[in-house]
Hints:
By secondary structure, this protein is an alpha/beta fold. It is built from 3 helices and 13 strands. It has helices at residues 147-151, 169-177, 187-196, and strands at residues 20-21, 30-31, 43-44, 52-53, 69-72, 79-80, 91-95, 102-103, 116-118, 125-126, 160-162, 181-184, 203-205. The protein has a 5-stranded parallel beta sheet, with no helix packed on it. It has a 3-stranded parallel beta sheet with strand order 5-7-9, with no helix packed on it. α2 packs across α3 (187-196). The chain starts with 19 loop residues before the first strand and ends with a strand.
Amino acid sequence: MPSSITTLGKAAFMNTNITKVSSWSDEITEIPESLFEGSSLLTVRIPDEVTTIGNRAFYNSLNLSGTMLDFVIPKNVTSIGESAFNDCDNITSITLPSGVKSIEGYAFYDCNNLEEINLGENIVNIGEWAFAYCRKLADLSLPATLQEIKRHLKPNYHMHYAVKANFNPSILSMIATAGLGADCVSGGEVKAAVDAGFDPSGIVYA
């Protein structure tokens, strides 16, 4: 990509046959909404100057047969938009820098080969369904900063996690440790919640 290009428009390369982007202008600070959505990307190097990865930026790309990716988010990124990497099947691991504070809903939804993610140290918000259906995800550590969510809840409310969203035992165990309850719709889900360490008094069967 020529260095003279300093901004990129929404959905500029959507549904294209581009397979690789290796050079960018240092002045590009945002990956806009749907930039590579549905494209044929096999690999991409996001420049260090980028601070924001927009909604659906890589939705349904990075998923063709080929080399699996250990994906590193640039050091200056502070937020990852909704569905930014939804359905990116070639990603096997992701490392987030310490500056990332928000992962919006569905950000990594249905990344079928995602096995590991390092969330960094300062995550404040993880949106709904952010890692749902990442069935191979087995290594996830929730940073202490997420505990702030609990502190701001009113005393007469208790947050419950829908076990059907992702019943990976490792994830259930970490959610139980964070103090959330479990919302179950089957006997199997109740057993999975108990085995993961949820307080039985906080398990709702409906």
